[in-house]
């Protein structure tokens, strides 16, 4: 029976081994050549650890063992597995009538022509050349740098090495558009990992892969690959790559060591791009990241896939748009290229599908130095990204308008006014709109903080009074964050407000008040009229002015999107010009093969006062 010592006793065994030998001596056990690798994953929050290694017969073992189990039980199990593997290998050789294996190992032969009978191999775990006692618990026994010996084969133990937990290439790839693999790492980070890109050799070519071991070559015998010169996380195919597949070889790292490499091929070939896009000329103004004193800010309704992929959208809203250009895989390429090309510090997005956020936007923008947060509404939501070299996320203060109005004492006075109009109150409380509020802190100057708000107000053309009340709730909440929680921090308020400059909502924001007799209080007729006067605390300005339109579809065009800024603390350094009317209408209206949304992104550089 195995003896189960206490944790202190187990740690003493390891500590004694640590004190006796230098780190280099653990590796001196090997003869010429590198040791095999035994990978151990041991996380405190999980009851089991995993052990992965390849036996001499070529079989791969993945073991799950209790962290509190004594080492001896694991070693005994490994010995049994090794014996079974040896027996299988011997049987296979016998069936092929090959000569008996005379290689070294813990095997003994009987007399006469009988095949060799394998004995259970010696299995030991060493740390700095001292055998680890078999009563030491797994959690303490399997240390990084230990050596596992199975017969004559030695394995270097790597505990919690960097590893990819997820790795995917996009399903649709176009020439001229960045390919941003989706990846998740454990015990590592993308910035310390290695990436190598390959492209399929053109038909008829038989060029070998440069510098890639044969063990890493494609599983498809009909494919041969040539290495590109790109060793970055993102690869942008050229026109020369059209019709070819791509392959990515990547090695996870943490800045000090590397984990097991992985390789994957694209399922599709590189397609031709659409040519000039509406944002290409805009990118000429945003080639570089701004200096620390500036904040390049983007607000963009990217058109949710849940709305684009409906029969109504294809036949009524956007009948002029080629069906393939409404497909998500196609539009994602354009969205990724457009957003990454702005080199923004803050990006506020509306109509973001949850899967688009996690599978497309995060991988693409993370590769270009941005981190993001997401707030779901119903079928889609809001996303705010910020440049990690400039800002860290201090706190989040998201709300649902109807929930805040009903339950937050902050809005008690507004609710008391609204209950006087039951029909209007019912409609307001039915709306699912949300407000995303993020407080960012400068990484260069911790005294500089900023409140970034992002919203998408109710859409209906007759919902003017609803948008007024939603905006009143939003501004009261933002004041609470920027005055009560973080006194005096400036505000950037982005969004699709579904309101043109002639509406009550815009008048309320810019002028600080709205009279009770404004026509928008009866925007949906007398039955839902709700006359009330509102005021707010801020002095706000539309940083990008009042463009002729930020939304351009077949039946409507107008300015619905804004970046409102706090005039007491911020000023506009430059506004990136919008696409020309000719560019917008090249394919009649938006979206199109050269523009992924029915809205146009607002982009401006802001400066601290």
From TrEMBL:
Annotated stretches, region: Disordered: 89-114, 206-231
Annotated 2',5'-phosphodiesterase 12-like N-terminal domain residues: 161-271
Cofactor: Mg(2+)
Residue stretches spanning the membrane: none
KW Nuclease (keyword) present: yes
Keywords: Exonuclease, Hydrolase, Magnesium, Metal-binding, Mitochondrion, mRNA processing, Nuclease, Phosphoprotein, Transit peptide
Location(s), subcellular: Mitochondrion matrix
GO terms (BP aspect): mRNA processing; nuclear-transcribed mRNA catabolic process, deadenylation-dependent decay
Name of the protein this chain belongs to: 2',5'-phosphodiesterase 12
């Amino acid at each position: 029976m195995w003896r189960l010592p206490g944790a202190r006793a187990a740690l003493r065994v390891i500590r004694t081994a640590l004190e006796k030998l230098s780190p280099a001596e653990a590796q001196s056990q090997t003869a010429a050549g590198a040791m095999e690798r035994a990978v151990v994953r041991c996380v405190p929050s999980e009851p089991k650890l995993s052990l992965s290694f390849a036996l001499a017969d070529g079989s791969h073992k993945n073991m799950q063992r209790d962290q509190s189990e004594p080492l001896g039980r694991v070693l005994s199990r490994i010995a049994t597995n090794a014996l079974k593997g040896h027996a299988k290998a011997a049987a296979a050789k016998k069936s092929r009538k090959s000569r008996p294996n005379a290689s070294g190992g813990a095997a003994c032969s009987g007399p006469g022509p009988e095949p060799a009978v394998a004995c259970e191999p010696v299995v030991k775990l060493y740390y700095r050349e001292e055998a680890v006692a078999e009563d030491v618990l797994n959690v303490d026994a399997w240390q990084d740098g230990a050596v596992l010996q199975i017969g004559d084969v030695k394995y270097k133990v790597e505990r919690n090495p960097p590893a990819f937990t997820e790795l995917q290439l996009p399903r649709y790839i176009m020439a001229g558009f960045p390919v941003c693999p989706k990846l998740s790492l454990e015990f590592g980070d993308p910035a310390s990992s290695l990436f190598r890109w390959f492209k399929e050799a053109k038909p008829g070519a038989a060029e070998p892969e440069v510098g890639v071991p044969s063990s890493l070559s494609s599983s498809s015998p009909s494919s041969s690959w040539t290495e590109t010169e790109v060793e970055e996380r993102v690869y942008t195919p050229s026109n020369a790559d059209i019709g070819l597949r791509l392959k990515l070889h990547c090695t996870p790292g943490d800045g000090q060591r590397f984990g097991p490499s992985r390789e994957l091929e694209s399922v599709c070939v590189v397609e031709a791009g659409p040519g000039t896009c509406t944002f290409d000329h805009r990118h000429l103004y945003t080639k570089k990241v701004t200096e620390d004193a500036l904040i390049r800010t983007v607000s963009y309704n990217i058109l949710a896939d849940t709305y684009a992929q409906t029969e109504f959208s294809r036949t009524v809203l956007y009948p002029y748009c080629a069906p393939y250009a409404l497909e998500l895989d196609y539009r994602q390429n354009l969205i990724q290229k457009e957003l990454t090309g702005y080199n923004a510090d803050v990006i506020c997005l509306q109509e973001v599908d949850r899967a688009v956020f996690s599978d497309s936007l995060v991988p693409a923008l993370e590769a270009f130095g941005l981190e993001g947060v997401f707030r779901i509404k119903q079928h889609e939501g809001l996303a705010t990204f910020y440049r990690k070299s400039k800002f860290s996320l201090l706190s989040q203060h998201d709300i649902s308008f109807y929930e805040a109005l009903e339950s937050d004492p902050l809005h008690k006075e507004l609710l008391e006014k609204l209950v006087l109009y039951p029909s209007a109150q019912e409609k307001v409380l039915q709306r699912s709109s949300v407000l995303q509020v993020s407080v960012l802190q400068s990484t260069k100057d911790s005294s500089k903080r900023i409140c970034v708000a992002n919203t998408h107000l109710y859409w209906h053309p007759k919902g003017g009074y609803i948008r007024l009340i939603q905006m009143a709730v939003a501004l009261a909440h933002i004041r609470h964050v920027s005055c009560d929680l973080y006194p005096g921090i400036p505000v950037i308020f982005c969004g699709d407000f579904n309101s043109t400059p002639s509406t009550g909502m815009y008048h309320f924001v810019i002028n600080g008040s709205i009279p009770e007799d404004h026509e928008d209080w009866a925007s949906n007729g007398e039955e839902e009229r709700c006359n009330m006067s509102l005021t707010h605390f801020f002095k706000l300005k539309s940083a990008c002015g009042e463009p002729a339109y930020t939304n351009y579809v077949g039946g409507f065009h107008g300015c619905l999107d804004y970046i409102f800024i706090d005039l007491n603390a911020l000023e506009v350094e430059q506004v990136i010009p919008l696409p020309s009317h000719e560019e917008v209408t090249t394919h009649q209206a938006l979206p199109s093969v050269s523009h992924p949304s029915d809205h146009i992104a607002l982009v401006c550089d802001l400066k601290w006062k």
